[in-house]
Predict the structure.
Amino acid sequence: MRSHAPFLVGRDPQLTLLESAMAQARQGRGGVVFLIGEAGVGKSRLAAQAVGGALGSGMRVLRGRSSTTGPAVPFRPLTEALMSLFRSGEPLDDLALGPYRPVLGRLIPDWDTGERESSSMVILGEAVLRLLLAAGRGQGQLLLLEDLHDADPETLGVLEYLVDNLEYTPVLLLATVRTDFSDALDLAQSARRRGVATLAELPPLTRPQVDEMTAAQLGAGGPGDVPAAVLERLWEDSAGSPYLVEELLQSMIGAGTLVQGTDGWRAVGDLRRDVSSTLARGILRRIDRLGTQGLTLLSAAAVLGRRFPLTVLQRMTGVDDRALLGHLHAGVAARLVVPDEPAPDWYSFRHSPTVEALFTQMTPGQRADLARRGARAVEELHPGLGGDWCALAAGLRCEAGDRVEAGLLYADAGGRALAAGALGSAVTLLSRAEGLLADAGDPQARASVLENLLPALAEAGDFARALDLAEDLHALGGAGLSAVRLATLHARLAKVAHTAGRWSDGNRQIDRAREVLATAPDEATEASVDVTAAYLALDTPGSDRTQHAEKLARSAADTAERHGLPVVACQARELLATVARERDPEESAAMLQQALATAERHRLPLQRMYAATRMGGNTWLAEGDTSGLLAAREEALRLGSVSIVHTVDGILILDAVLRGDHESARSAADDCLAVVRRLRLAPAVRYVLMARAALEAHRADRAAMETALAAFTEWDGAGSQEEPLSLGLARAFCALLEEDRDLARAELRSVQELEAGNPSTYHLGGTHGLVLLLDVLAGDAGRARHEEVTGTAMARMRWNRQFVLLADAVLLGREGAGPRAAAAVESALEVARPYPLARHLGLRLVADAGHRDGWGDPVGWLRRAEHYFHERDVAAVTGACRAGLRRLGAPVHQHRSGTSQIPEKLRAQGVTVREFDVFRLLAERLSNKDIADRLFISPRTAEKHIASLIAKTGSANRADLCARSAAFRG
């Protein structure tokens, strides 16, 4: 007779907690609850109760469970949970996923684009979070992930991100974890310490609760209807574990020591047994009822893992279809195994103790033999061992004691995981392979593993361990490895060091690679070494780093062309384009065009995207045109390259700042920072914070600028490529808006010192434009300095070019070429048209020089600048402009309401608000009296305004003034 409890016992506090958490999720306040307890304590039962409550309240439920089949399968619980979204047939609005949709191809086969960029678990976590939000139906969602103690590293990496970001979403994450030591338990405890998750610990049942559960299992009226000896033994032997209570009770009933008669339940015989042996014997006794073939079948299944495929099991045991299905159905009836949905031909053991019990009746030799048979079955059924079969076969070979074969299979599985971007599994699998092959006496095989393990460790951030392997490379050097393989390993280690920012270590590895290749030169390998060395050189501090990097990259590009190395060729040309940009924009464009053509010819979409992004960046620097960047961003969205999307977003934010579109820049910066900070994309964070500092500086808000710069420093801003921009675009401009030119020049001198010691690839910091203008105005620079600066490619970049033209105008004025000076100002204003703040600041800066040397329209320039900065509450510059107007003897008008409606040209001519009102009416050819009646002024006042307008606008007479008014209104 089967026992069954119709309700949970002793879990009321946990149920109340879950009901409250689900209610909050339905109201948009999601969260995380970890159910923590020992094996068999009832975590799954409680989770099932929560699922029922969620479904009853209209919530969507997504369920997934981790597996112990061989090595951990990346993302299995997440994939299982998310796939249910696509089985319901309900349409899913995936537009909200943006660039994250392709990233989800790693979890959702239908969305797999075939691209395998190694995006981080954080980026994938953001993608999963956005999918959950997009799938919401307004009633909340329950994401249930069971047995996280068996989860793979990738799943835990994604969950760590979700745990920190579910609070203000309609999603409740419920996860079950054992109390045994595991990474999942560490994750749960860390989340509780940070206050972002609740741990609901399930303690063992108390004695009264065990009694109550026993009565419920037996369908008795209460504990009083159960023999006292049975209750005593269950309490002592179960230690309060609901699973053991259930299993021991099943064992007693099955063994005939607990029977039901007409007068109720009664005990027969001796109930005393050792708990572990009792449980094992109880389970095995139930298995024995399946017969010898059933025992053999389940023993083989246990060796395959808690989850097992029927095809492999059948090949291992040789049973026919009918016998196989018959025993499985009997196992389901005996509550030993269950179908493992959604996979149709997979089953799993109901409880892991069942697997352990089966192991107790096998000798080590029998287990090894079954494992070897299982490995052969997998290899025969799945030639090539695609998908997860390679990892399963590796685990079986390892259990069989076939260490070399297992190591080679782990190496193959690890290489595939690395190519697929499953970094955690790649590190785990490759580390197992490295350990198994280390003592196998096959240095070639071990070297092959290290070629993949080194970049996997670097991408996973485990730099210390990767660099520790340098000693292993030294040992392998004397183990018969070819020079090519050993040099390749040193180059891989150099790349690890470069990624970690350890330039000296990387350069040492490059030196070792070159030493090895000196004994057996190989041009193809030398090209790979050179391109890595080039990137190290470009990022290694030094005054000649750009020249050294260029030389290396050029050599790598030439060799890559001869030997057909398209990736190396693209990488080298992209670096060459970056270096050449400051020397010759056309050369830079040609390099990028070659990289683009190579990427397209060899179908390298990521390399094509990188080249297109750099081409768009060059166009933006040259002309302020963002169309190329926007096109590259669209390509990055299609490919799912989140980092490139946010990199372009940072440039667009800075562009908005320079264009004076401060509100949209602020909004975009806030949105971008919220994401890139979560993703820990440090370069993007620094760039956006630099742009944010420039935004505050261009508003003359020093306190807000300093706050942004402090955050910039916290993200390793000192010494970064963005640091010159933080000084030139933020601090120097803020000083100018405070009318402190000496401070502005000091900030720009700091930029020059930074760039002299470590040449930068960023060129908008002011050293090729603004500092020239300020030095010319101060009398510290003349025509020779101007020609020196204008001879550089950087001076021709649009942002810099406006200041270079203004400097030229000041010099021309000093040289007595007034008309040419005024024309140079007009050219500068045309170049500066996209940049209103810089445009008007330039007018304010050159006005005094124009007045002093007698050229241009200093009064008009100061009026335009004064109005612009007054409208933006930049008090210091507004006051300086007014003071300048007074020095020039020009009237200073009060700002009345309606001033902003006066066209800039008329405003620069000194037209007042009331004069503009008169000017607009002149288009109707009205008389002085009619104008006076319309404006409620006297005819004499109207006549004075008209006379003033004729003088200010330079009109020939009243008729000419009326024609100008009509043209304005037309």
The CA atoms of residues 86 and 110 lie 9 Å apart. The chain has a mean pLDDT of 86.
